Amino acid sequence: MEPVESQLVYDWNQVTPRAAPDHAFQLLDETLRDGLQSPSVSDPSLGEKLELLELMNALGIHVVNVGLPGAGPRALEDVVAMCRYIQQRKLRIVPCAAGRTVAADILPVVEAQQRSGQRIELYTFIGSSPIRQWAEAWDLEFLLKTSREAIALGVKEGLHTAFVTEDTVRSSPFNLDRLFRNAVEHGASRLVLCDTVGHATPDGARALVRWTRGLLRRLGADEVEIDWHGHNDRGLGVPNSIAALEAGAQRAHACGLGVGERVGNTSMDLLVLNLSLLGWFHHDVSKLVTYVRKVSRACRIPIPVNYPLSGADAFRTATGVHAAAIIKAKKRGNDWLADRVYSGVPAGQFGKQQQIEIGPMSGMSNVKYWLELRGMAGNEALCKEILQRAKSASWTLTDEEILDVVSAWRARKEKRRSRLL
After folding, report:
1. Are strands 63-65 and 316-317 parallel, antiparallel or unpaired?
2. 73-88 and 46-59 are packed helices; what angle lies between their axes, rounded to 10 degrees?
3. What phi and psi values does residue 169 have, to the nearest 5 degrees?
4. Cβ burial, residue 334 (10 Å; 0-12/13-18/19+)
5. Is 325 exposed, middle or buried (CB count within 10 Å of its CB: 0-12, 13-18, 19+)?
6. Residues in contact with 421: Cβ distance below 8 Å, sequence separation at least 6, in sequence order
7. Where are the beta strands (DSSP E) in 183-299?
8. In 3-state terms, what secondary structure has residue 96?
9. What's CA 29's distance to the chain center, in Å?
10. pTM score, whole prediction
11. Do the beta carbons of residue 255 and residue 34 sit within 8 Å?
12. Strands 190-195 and 161-166
């Protein structure tokens, strides 16, 4: 009798499991705003941006930052066009736009909303940390005045207004208390906690979110929601975002392929991957790899071969021991087992499949499986010849190189047959 799946994997992750948030949360895609601030990406064409909107919507991403319309005429026109597209296509995804806490950035968001007929959320930002204040020669009164005027303008113009404090994770409780009280009093509907330079650890993310929730409770402003916006400078973008959601954040921001300034923002695709495996995200994720590939093409930035899920090597092996285990599982007709025996991420759940290739670390099972998969089940002599070729190489053989061996073997076999005739 076949063992049940729970008997095949003892999951230490579930010994002291991370509790799912007891509140609904959303994902905000920053690819088309903060992601484009990377010095290495290209600004996609409008057509590419619209394709990305469709993929984000298909993945169940709730909100998209369509840009910073105050940056210039092209930025404004693209924002208007994307918002019109969302409305015309009746997409579920909600657009937001960014702007500094100045009227010159906020009024273009108002214009985009009026011209498109689509409601747009405003995310208005200013630096809040002492190090930024010192560099800019700002004092707290300046921050309070600028923020108050910007939020009041957004609210007056009918925009749901989120107040974004850059570098929140390095700001003092005293400053944040004053700034957040000021924002709530003047109509901000969201507070956005930013790890602008990727300084936070999961402990820091949890602490900041919990502190902010406590402040909102004391203010009697439980209707004001909390966003987490993370960067990946310490490689902690995804775990920080999960910790922030666990602690009470209602939105997490991220970018496809983790693009963004310096080493990038939290990766949206890796966040969705992990939230799905945790059982916290219940949307169809079969287009997640398509989304990453589209971000890669649109932004002209390559996907690293060893990048989780979407990288070329994510489910590819030429190692004999690994391949043999996967092949045995497949031959038993157990796709669930084949997808997990040498993989912590089940390929099939995300629209991919395990790949068995042939290289210097391969065994005979690799060769036989490769041939069988292509309807070319070969005899022992052919298999040995392919394996010998692989063992003499210092790389994984390409399909063309393997087929060259097959063709040469067949030619020799035909030549011998002709001589016998």
Report:
1. unpaired
2. 40
3. -70, -10
4. middle
5. middle
6. none
7. 190-195, 225-230, 251-254
8. strand
9. 8
10. 0.93
11. yes
12. parallel
Measured from the Cβ of residue 48, the count of other Cβ atoms closer than 10 Å reads: 17
State the pairing for strand pair 251-254/26-29.
parallel
Helices (H), 248-378: 268-278, 288-299, 320-331, 335-338, 364-373
Select from 93, 88, 75 the least CA-distant residue to 27: 93
Sign, Cα dihedral of 252, 258, 263, 264: negative
**Beta carbons of 291 and 56 less than 8 angstroms apart:** yes
CATH 3.20.20.70 residue spans of the chain: 23-299
Question: Which residue's structure tokens are 């036989």?
Answer: 368
> Which among 369, 301, 344 is positioned nearest to 35, based on CA atoms?
301
Burial of 173 by CB count in 10 Å (0-12 exposed, 13-18 middle, 19+ buried)?
exposed
In this structure, what token pair is assigned to residue 396? 């994984």
From CA 268, how far away is CA 225, in angstroms rounded?
A: 20
Report the CATH architecture of 23-299: Alpha-Beta Barrel (3.20)
**Cα separation of 164 and 167, whole Å?**
9
Where does residue 224 rank: exposed (0-12), middle (13-18), buried (19+ CB within 10 A)? buried
* Rounded CA separation 20/24 (Å): 10
Tracing tokens 């399909």 back to the chain, one arrives at 399
pLDDT tens for each residue of the chain, 421 residues long: 455 666 788 888 888 877 889 899 999 999 999 999 999 999 999 999 999 999 999 999 999 999 999 999 999 999 999 999 999 999 999 999 999 999 999 999 999 999 999 999 999 999 998 888 888 888 999 999 999 999 999 999 999 999 999 999 999 999 999 999 999 999 999 999 999 999 999 999 999 999 999 999 999 999 999 999 999 999 999 999 999 999 999 999 999 999 999 999 999 999 999 999 999 999 999 999 999 999 999 999 999 999 999 999 999 998 989 888 988 888 888 888 888 988 999 999 998 989 999 999 999 999 998 998 888 876 899 999 999 999 999 999 999 999 999 999 889 888 887 777 6
Query: CB burial class (10 A; 0-12, 13-18, 19+) of residue 240?
Result: buried
The dihedral of CA 269, 274, 277, 280: what is its sign? negative
Task: Read off the tokens for 296.
Answer: 């890669």
